[in-house]
Amino acid sequence: MKDIVFPNNNEEEFLERAKLLGYDSLIFVYQIDKYKEGAIFTSPDKLKKAKSLTKIVLTNSNDRQVFEKNSDIIVFELEEISKKDSLHFRHSGLNHILCNLAKKNNITIGISFSLAFNSRGMLRSQILGRMEQNIELARKYELKKVIASFARSPKEMRSPHDLKSLAITLGMHPYDAEQSLLH
């Protein structure tokens, strides 16, 4: 099992915590200007440069051009892009147009445990509802999904069992939840 984390010169702490939680390895994500090895998190305008440096590139934009002009990337934390939901529907950051483009361009939708973990009160329930909607859309359009902690500190990491349980609670089928964990 693997997890995706964002270290800040504390890679050893992450590795120790990962071992306790039962992970075989971690995917360290760095900003493009601080890239060592692993994965790159970048803004939409630097995706091409990031793709030339590494295979795993992450962004958190729901801009249509990101979905149209890029392929083989992970888009995560879509749930926090919009601050307010409409009376009749949620602004989850994903819609049918983006789902069709994601399917066409092999874009993976990332579900971030850290996003739910770090939110409080009404915002947490709103984010969990948006995650539930994004999982439903991803299932409907048969998109690739990845569920990971996306932790910014070692204390935010959770075991693979916890991540799978969250995914199932949010509406993923148990088989899909198992497949969404990085092996």
Description:
The protein is an alpha/beta fold and 183 residues long. The protein has a single domain (2-180), classed as Metal-dependent hydrolases (TIM Barrel). It is 42% helix and 16% strand. Strands 1-2-3-4-5-6-7 form a seven-stranded parallel β-sheet. Helix 7 (160-169) packs across helix 8. The mean pLDDT is 93.
Order of helices and strands: EHEEHEHEHEHHEHH
Q: Give a count of the beta strands, DSSP E runs of length 2 or more.
A: 7
Using the alpha-carbon principal axes, give the shape: globular
- Label the CATH architecture: Alpha-Beta Barrel
Overall number of domains: 1
CATH class: Alpha Beta
Whole-number mean pLDDT = 93
- Unreliable runs: none
CATH topology: TIM Barrel
Within CATH, the superfamily carries the name Metal-dependent hydrolases
Radius of gyration: 16 Å
Number of helices: 8
Which helices and strands occur, and which strands form pairs?
Elements: E1 2-5, H1 11-21, E2 25-31, E3 39-41, H2 47-53, E4 56-59, H3 64-69, E5 74-76, H4 96-104, E6 108-112, H5 113-118, H6 121-140, E7 145-148, H7 160-169, H8 174-180
Parallel strand pairs: 1-2, 2-3, 3-4, 4-5, 5-6, 6-7
